[in-house]
């Protein structure tokens, strides 16, 4: 059966729509005496249908059910997520505007833009981490490159071409870091999204890519792509034969993509904790876990108490690779 890059997203959205139509049956109750007393908006700084949007809608539905107050999704894409996140950062810190962002909006953008439109490090309140997805280094199945070592050897003999969904994407940053760490030469070919990238990778127009788990897992299972390495602390249970970058001696490449919840600076602590607790509860639901898994995500919850330290550390980690590669969105 012919594989289509957008098929997984379509199936996910259908499954999500069916799931959101089901009531959890839980008793709705305010987490605080006077909050919330009106609808809450959750900004997603990307178009509807993407992975961050899927996570946001799962969280919004779960919190709406628990609190008895509607959480409304507002998709505000543009400028690598800066438009939506900036609006969220400038909102009143009253708990009625939050942002479901990701590692691009709250980590890499801090160094990709010389002058971000708001202080990404200290101009927000990190509330909770929800999910993460690993990255896979992949080549087409019939490529003469069979292992990571083969890739390095080929890259030292000749200039290879690698693709990413866009300049400054996680895929771009990790692939650039890879070719620098391995001491090989590779040319970056940016695309307008994952779909055209996959067409050229499968067709042999580019040699390799570092892609998110959900975007390539189906191709690997169908025998159309070969995985050479994966991010993360340990090998993936679904792909046990694929070594981690750490195993290969590339410890700085253990960078994962994630989705997290943020509020404006000075968001009251009791409201931030209420959201953190509610999200933790939502992420325990089997339907939520299964939907996230189908999108290539794993539940990776971090509570409010851990988020500030995590947030600043992620900015530092991604900035090191962005600056070393001279990558910019200005």
UniProtKB/TrEMBL annotation:
GO molecular-function term, one example from the UniProt record: lyase activity
Keywords: Lyase, Signal
SUPFAM superfamilies, alphabetized: Periplasmic binding protein-like II (SSF53850)
Signal peptide positions on this chain: 1-28
Any matching Pfam family: TctC
UniProt cross-references to CDD domains, sorted A to Z: PBP2_Bug_TTT (cd07012)
Xref: PANTHER family: BLR1237 PROTEIN, TRICARBOXYLATE-BINDING PROTEIN
Family membership: Belongs to the UPF0065 (bug) family.
Name of the featured protein: Argininosuccinate lyase
């Amino acid at each position: 059966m012919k594989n289509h890059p957008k098929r997984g997203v379509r199936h996910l959205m259908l499954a999500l729509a069916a799931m959101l139509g089901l009531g959890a049956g839980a008793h709705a109750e305010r987490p605080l005496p006077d909050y919330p007393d009106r609808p809450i908006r959750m900004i997603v700084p990307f178009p509807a249908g993407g992975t961050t949007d899927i996570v946001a809608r799962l969280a919004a539905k779960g919190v709406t059910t628990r609190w008895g107050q509607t959480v409304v999704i507002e998709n505000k894409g543009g400028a690598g997520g800066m438009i939506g996140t900036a609006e969220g950062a400038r909102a009143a810190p009253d708990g009625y505007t939050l942002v479901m962002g990701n590692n691009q909006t709250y980590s890499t953008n801090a160094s990709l833009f010389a002058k971000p439109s708001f202080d990404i490090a200290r101009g927000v309140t990190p509330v909770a981490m929800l999910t993460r997805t690993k990255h896979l280094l992949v080549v087409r199945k019939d490529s003469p490159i069979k292992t990571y070592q083969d890739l390095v050897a080929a890259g030292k003999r000749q200039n290879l071409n690698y693709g990413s969904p866009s300049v400054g994407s996680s895929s771009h940053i990790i692939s650039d870091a890879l070719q620098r760490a391995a001491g090989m030469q590779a040319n970056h070919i940016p695309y307008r999204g994952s779909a055209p990238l996959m067409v050229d990778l499968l067709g042999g127009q580019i040699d390799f890519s570092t892609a998110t788990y959900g975007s390539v897992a189906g191709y690997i299972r169908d025998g159309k792509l070969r995985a050479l390495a994966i991010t993360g602390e340990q090998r993936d249970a679904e792909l046990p034969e694929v070594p981690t970058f750490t195993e290969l001696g590339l410890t700085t490449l253990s960078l994962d993509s994630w989705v997290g919840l943020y509020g404006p600076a000075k968001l009251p602590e009791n409201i931030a904790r209420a959201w953190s607790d509610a999200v933790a509860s939502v992420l325990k639901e089997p339907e939520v876990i299964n939907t996230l898994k189908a999108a290539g995500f794993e539940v990776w919850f971090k509570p409010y108490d851990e988020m500030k330290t995590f947030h600043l550390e992620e900015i530092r980690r991604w900035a090191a690779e962005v600056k070393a590669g001279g990558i910019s969105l200005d």
